[in-house]
Fold this sequence. Notes:
The strands form six sheets. The protein has a six-stranded parallel sheet, sandwiched between helices. It has four domains: 9-138, Methylthiotransferase, N-terminal domain (Rossmann fold); 161-277, Transcription Regulator spoIIAA (2-Layer Sandwich); 303-397, Transcription Regulator spoIIAA (2-Layer Sandwich), CATH 3.30.750; 403-465. Helices cover 35% and strands 23% of the residues. The chain contains 16 helices and 21 strands. 5'-deoxyadenosine binds next to strand 15. 5'-deoxyadenosine is lined by residues 56-57, 181-182, 283, 285, 323, 325, 354, 356-357, 359. [4Fe-4S] cluster 1 binds at residues 18, 54, 88. It is found in: Cytoplasm. Its EC number is 2.8.4.3. Pfam families: Radical_SAM (PF04055), TRAM (PF01938), UPF0004 (PF00919).
Amino acid sequence: MSDVTPKRKKLYIETVGCQMNLLDSELVVGKLRNEGYELTDDIGKADTILYNTCSVRQHAEDKIYSALGRIKQLKQLKPELTIGVLGCMAQKDQKQILKRAPHVDIVVGPGQLARVPELLVLAKEEATPQMAVSLPRTAGSNLTVTASFAEYDPIREPAMRPTPFQAFVRIMMGCDKFCTYCIVPSVRGPEQSRPAAVIVDEARALADQGVKEITLLGQTVNSYRSVDASGRTFRLSDLLERLHEIEGLQRIKFITNFPNDMTDDLLQAVRDLPRVSRYLHVPAQSGCDEVLKRMKRTYSVALYDDMLDRIRETVPDAAVSSDFIVGFPGESEASFEKSMRLVERGRFKNSFIFKYSPRQGTKADTLFIDDIPEEVKKRRNNDLLVLQTAISQEDNRRLIGQSLEVLVEGPSKSSKGVAAGEIGQLSGRSSCDRIVVFEGHERLVGQFVPVSIEDASGVTLFGRVVTMDLVAPRA
Length: 475
Ligand code: 5AD
Ligand code: SF4
């Protein structure tokens, strides 16, 4: 046996966008590590630089194009460097990426990620850029298009997870809702639910590796539906029941929900399964029926309100969060006011608020003019955020005096880190997804601890650990 180990190639990867992208990056890195790569944080030392990209708003794309511009010089100094653009922007812009950034070697859409290692080799061997993208939604039968968005959930890579005890699990791919503003159905392809048995096996393997919290991912996770070989249908509620039986998994979250599919069986599952997180992210997008109609969201404000009532009735301790788009074409002051009123009524834990960004290839971009000036979008964004923050703070303050079970994630953002064996400021999340900051011993990281809440801001709860003993997992 030779004692000369081959030099491992250094991989630098940057990920923007949603949790789906974080998971995709984990999987790509897992595969590349198996092929002899090792991760580096230092872009200057990398042999391969990958960007896993997002197309949901223009801003996310601009960020990547400027990053590509910045590394052009790096490539000139180091011609052997390989540069890759992966994910949604790769699928959307395809050859345009190579036109704008000819120093890019591979362009790989989210439905073709399994081919990344092979394409990295080919790009070098053939000294020409390689591209792998899925078919456009209109290119053929649904079956052919779906097949071009290949399932890709192979090797898990613990080093790429947010923490060793938390993991994402994809349960659905793609989206068929076609909201008029949204690029996701084009870049992530047709909606496909993964088989329940595959998901349960994956979750069990993660639990065996020490994962305590999983987050199930889907663009509309509560539309999940699969049928097994015996003909049994699994809805999200059925899947939660199965996952709840896995030993070691102590918290199960799922994001993101679509209002129409927030069915009673799902709410009852959240109520009855104690390890399912009391947190429901259900984007409303607007509080005005006319705007919802132009967005093709297929529900009315009344349906959304009714859904909120059902949530509050069935799972009173659940926190609900939402997304809003401000400045959608034709959004009048009166329409916007209706979004403000919905935020007031909804008492969301938080809302993610976005200024409308026209996306080429979407219905809204062809049908409507982006007629709301940027200053108006900015003002509406700010007004909604101020209102939401006041509500978040009011509701957070109601938790003062209560004790919440917190999964400790690590040192708090504002602390300078907590060294091994030391006490410092830690941060974690409650079952209702609230961020909780408290003083504690470093060994609490990765544990569930009861924290008594003493103070609250709009985004953070501050507390004290009820006992410094390591707390046993919840039964
Ligand atoms: N412009 C602004 N926001 C958008 N979102 C999706 N598409 C757009 C767009 N074109 C927002 C929606 C969605 C979130 C992930 O991003 O609120 O829920
Ligand atoms: Fe986009 Fe609508 Fe699908 Fe969400 S449900 S990913 S907003 S098309």
